[in-house]
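Continuing the batch. This is chain 6 of the set; chains 1 through 5 are on the previous pages. Same settings as before, nothing changed between runs. Recording input and output for traceability.
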Amino acid sequence: MVIDDKLKDIQSRAAEISEQMNSGAVSGGELTKLSKEYSELNEILPLVNEYFAIKQGIDDANEMLNDAELKTIAAEQLDELKHKLPDVERQLQIALLPRDEADDNSVIMEIRAGVGGEESALFAGDLYNQYKSYALRHGWKTEIVDENPTSLHGYKEIIFKIDGAGAYARLKFESGIHRVQRVPETEAGGRIHTSAASVAVMPQAQDIDIVIDDKDIRIDVFRASGAGGQHVNKTDSAVRITHFPTGIVVTCQNERSQFQNKATAMAVLRSKLYEKQRTEQVNASNSARKTMVGSGDRSEKIRTYNFPEQRVTDHRIKLTLYKLDDILAGGPALDEMIDALIAADQLERLANLE
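Output for chain 6:
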C-alpha cells in the first residue's frame, strides 16, 4: 500500500538522521536542520509504530484462527484490533497533513478597540490580559511593542510580541472580531451593552523570511509619550518606520533606547510583510477558500463573550463554553476552545483531500 510505503520511509529517515547526529559527522547549521527534521518525525513515529504493530497483530490473529485451541482468543484479538485500526489511521492522516511553515514561529499580536467607546477599550485590555496570562501559562514571553492606553486602563490599541516555539500554531485562529456583552462600569442604568475589539495574529518573521531594502523605508524618530520610565519625554527614542511599497507604518516607543525601538519596529514590519505575502500566496492558489474556522480576516466576527450568562461562543464552530472567567484568565478553557478550532481545521483539510 502507498500509505505503508510512506510510513516506512518515515521510519527509515528517522533512523538515518539519528545515526548521522550520533556519528558526530555533522555540526553547526546542518546539525540544527537535522535536529528540527528529526523532532518533527519523532512526533509521528509512535503512531507509525503503533499502526504497523496493529497490522502485524491482525496478520498474527488471522493465522491463529486456523488453530482450534487458539481460535476463540484469536477472534477476540482480531475484533479488537480491527476496531482500533481506523482510529489510528485517522490520527496518521491528520499527522501527515501539510504543516504550516509558520506554525513553530513566535507571534506579533495587535488588539484594537472597535465600536463601543471606553467599554471597547476596556475589553481590548481584557483580551490583552487574557493572551498575556495564556502565554505565561505556556512558558512564553510577552513584550509590549506599542500601546495607546486610555484613562480607565483600557487600550485603544496595543501591539505585543509573544515569544515561544509553536505560539503561532496555537494562536493563529484568534484573528478576527471579538464581541463582549456586559454592563459597562460607566453604565448607571444597568443596561447590557455590546462592544467589540479586533485581534490580528501574525507569525513573527525571521530575517531570512523577508528582506527589506533600505530605499523602501523611511525611519522617523520622535519623543516617546506615556508610560515607559524616566527616559520618556527626554530623548527622541521612539521610532516610526514607513514602508513605501505597501504603505505599512509601524511605531515602537516602549523600549528604552532608539536602537532597541528600531530593532523591534523592524521585526514588526517584517512580520506584517510576511503575513501579507502569505495571504497573497493563499489567495492566488486554488486552496483559497472560506474555511470552517475562517480566513483569519480581522474583520470577521469570530467570538462573543457574554458576561450575564458567563458564556463564550465561537461562531465559526458553533462551540459554547460556560467558562467565561477561565477563558478570560487564559486558563485551560481557552486551550479547550483552541483545541476544538485546530481539530475543526484538521477535519476540514482532511475532507478536502478525500
